[in-house]
Amino acid sequence: ETGVTQSPTHLIKTRGQQVTLRCSSQSGHNTVSWYQQALGQGPQFIFQYYREEENGRGNFPPRFSGLQFPNYSSELNVNALELDDSALYLCASSYPGQNYGYTFGSGTRLTVV
Amino acid sequence: AQSVTQPDIHITVSEGASLELRCNYSYGATPYLFWYVQSPGQGLQLLLKYFSGDTLVQGIKGFEAEFKRSQSSFNLRKPSVHWSDAAEYFCAVGVGTNAGKSTFGDGTTLTVKP
Question: Measured between CA atoms, how close is A33 to chain B, in angstroms?
């Protein structure tokens, strides 16, 4: 099992800029979820992609968007960055079906200044 | 909407002592429940999960958890803590059968004294 790889590990952006975070899942993991983890809090669900289509979204504005690609990679895009977007962004992927657990990446630490 | 409460923000135990981390959930149907562990700067690792059946579930690293529907709880236990167990622990409830849309608690930080 090769796991889930996220890049970059750390990133500093200026308020108002746009950012793209990347996640590479292992082969066969066609379901990927993205979470935002603010300091001192638990992860919050942003959205999920299944077979390249969005499959549910949490309470996040449209400036948070995503893509999933046929090669089991995915992206999280955030436009018009705000200071409150500073957080650890985690992706988690799984095989389809309820009996499979999700494998989390180590995250991207985004700092907005 | 579902929610998860972890009442203890920080717990300190001595190495070799037993451990219980509390988790209470709110969910309208049969919950799918999870415990994860997160070491500093790392992602989350699944310790164990409850979908149905036996209410006492065994996980990795010697952890177990008991689902109590009447108390809406899913407490995590370990009989003897090791120094390497120091980390942050998160309880989560899945949305329906979809573990990838989980709602997490705010975590409990475990410190292990030598």
Answer: 6
DSSP for A19-53 reads: EEEEEEPPTT--EEEEEEE-TTS--EEEEEEETTE
CA dihedral B98, B100, B101, B107 (to 10 degrees): 120
- Omega within 30 of 0 (cis) for the link into B7: no
Contact pairs from chain A to chain B, CB under 8 Å? 62
* Residues in chain B within 8 Å Cβ distance of A60: none
Closest chain B residue to A32, measured at CA: B100
What's the half-sphere exposure (Cβ side, CA atoms, 13 Å) at B10?
4
Are the C-beta atoms of A101 and B46 separated by less than 8 Å?
Answer: yes
pLDDT at site B31: 86
- In sequence order, the β-bridge partners of residue A36 are A44, A89
CB B19 within 8 A of CB B12: no
Q: What is the pLDDT of residues A65-76, one digit of tens each?
A: 999 999 999 999
CA distance A96 to A91: 16
